[in-house]
Amino acid sequence: MKLCFNSLLSEAEKTAERNKSEAVNCTFEKKIKEVTANE
Q1: Of 32, 37, 17, residue with least CA distance to 9
Q2: CA distances from 9 to 1, 15, 18, 32 (A)
Q3: What is the spatial distance between Cα 23 and Cα 15, in angstroms, rounded to a whole number?
Q4: CA-CA distance, 16 to 24, in Å (whole number)?
């Protein structure tokens, strides 16, 4: 049971990491668009 819970937890962590990096990429792209629009 504990092993199963640990694997679920690591899957959730992987998903969270992926979502975090996607959010960072999205923010980064928005900043680039703002900078290019300002020039």
Answers
A1: 17
A2: 12, 10, 14, 35
A3: 12
A4: 12
pTM above 0.90, yes or no: no
Q: Kindly report, residue by residue over 5-29, the tens digit of the pLDDT.
A: 677 778 888 899 998 988 888 888 8
Which two structure tokens, joined as six digits, stand for 6?
């640990």
Name the DSSP class of 1. Answer: -
The token pair at 20 is 């975090």
The token pair at 11 is: 């899957």
Q: What is the DSSP letter of 39?
A: -
CA distance 17 to 6: 16
